[in-house]
Write a structure and sequence with these properties.
About 55% of the residues lie in helices and about 5% in strands. The chain is built from 13 helices and five strands. The protein is elongated, with a radius of gyration of 31 Å. The relative contact order is 0.07.
């Protein structure tokens, strides 16, 4: 039985071949490619890459794949596929837009018998991979931006407070697009401060130290998830959290660790919460004036499960709307 494919004749046009655009993620270590990618690379007739310094090339060559440094035009690439040949193009970071646009124009012209075109992702980003981009961008801004390079922790402190309030406002408004943007602004503050911290002459730390610290804390404070303890209700989870936190902090007073610089209503609420959670019987201080009245209201609200800070914001926003209505402005 003859299994040889018939040769092309004037009445039988040659197979147009196949073009594979191989994309990789710079957020994944070079050489960690999918099995379909390796299989395609080994079977290809030619492998091309326009960037001779592409981080994947040493690993491809080490695996026995010959890679030619070349930047073919769309016409040249189609011609290279003549006779049923497979050509793999290892895409640069920009994704080869000029080449793909050229191929699209050729295909649309109807004048050329086009090879099969395939986009083959050789590596994929893991969840959270874009955080690496943020770290790299922040590093460059810190080094090259005249304003950012001069900032300090103290100088940026006010922005952290502002961004936190804007995040709360986006949550209360229910605006999803605004929420996403404000979360990014808060995240920027974390990365910015961590980048500044790297430069401390005596006690530097990095964003990896920050992330590592919170990962350790979360695992330690969730023994019902990562350990042998069990918790089936939110109340049991909170009990685990408070117990492990108390062991970690070894505080003398339930008031230790409460920032006194926070808004007064939130401060009063936090104090009331700590006292109630600890099971202490502490009467509210007696005194005259609106401050003591507000303290009593905040404590009462907290005991009923109401966040007085949020409740007052809702009322204040309603008051704002009423003012605008009185001005004839509406919403």
């Amino acid at each position: 039985m003859n299994t040889t494919s018939p040769a092309a004749t004037p009445d039988t046009p040659a197979a147009p071949g196949r073009i594979v655009l191989l994309t990789t993620s710079h957020r994944v270590a070079p050489g960690l490619l999918s099995w379909p990618a390796w299989r395609t690379l080994h079977a290809a007739d030619r492998v091309l890459c326009a960037d001779g310094a592409h981080p994947q090339l040493p690993y491809l060559r080490e695996a026995g794949t010959r890679v030619d440094e070349a930047s073919p035009t769309a016409e040249e690439l189609v011609a290279a596929c003549a006779g049923g040949r497979t050509v793999v193009v290892v895409a640069t970071g920009e994704g080869e837009p000029a080449l793909t646009d050229g191929l699209a124009r050729l295909a649309g012209s109807g004048r050329v018998s086009m090879p099969d075109l395939e986009l083959l992702p050789a590596s994929y980003d893991l969840p959270g991979a874009r955080l690496l981009d943020l770290v790299q961008v922040m590093d460059r801004i810190r080094a090259e931006c005249p304003w950012s390079s001069q900032q300090t922790h103290k100088g940026l402190a006010k922005y952290g407070i502002e961004e936190a309030y804007e995040l709360v406002e986006a949550i209360e408004d229910g605006d999803r697009d605004e929420l996403r943007e404000e979360l990014g602004d808060v995240l920027l503050q974390v990365v910015f401060h961590a980048r500044i911290a790297e430069e401390h002459p005596e006690a530097p730390f990095s964003i990896d130290d920050v992330a590592g610290g919170i990962v350790t804390k979360l695992i330690h404070r969730h023994p019902h998830v990562f350990g042998d303890e069990t918790a089936s209700t939110p109340e049991e989870v909170k009990a685990h959290w408070l117990r492990t936190k108390a062991i970690e902090k070894q505080r003398e007073s339930v008031t230790d660790g409460i920032p006194l610089g926070q808004p007064a209503l939130a401060l009063a609420t936090k104090l009331s919460s700590r006292v109630r959670t600890a099971g202490l019987e502490v009467p509210l201080p007696k005194g005259e004036g609106i401050g003591y009245e507000l303290l009593a209201l905040a404590a009462a609200a907290e005991s009923e499960g109401v966040d007085p800070e949020a409740a007052l914001r809702v009322a204040a926003r309603a008051y704002r709307d009423a003012v605008r209505a009185a001005e004839g402005l509406g919403e």
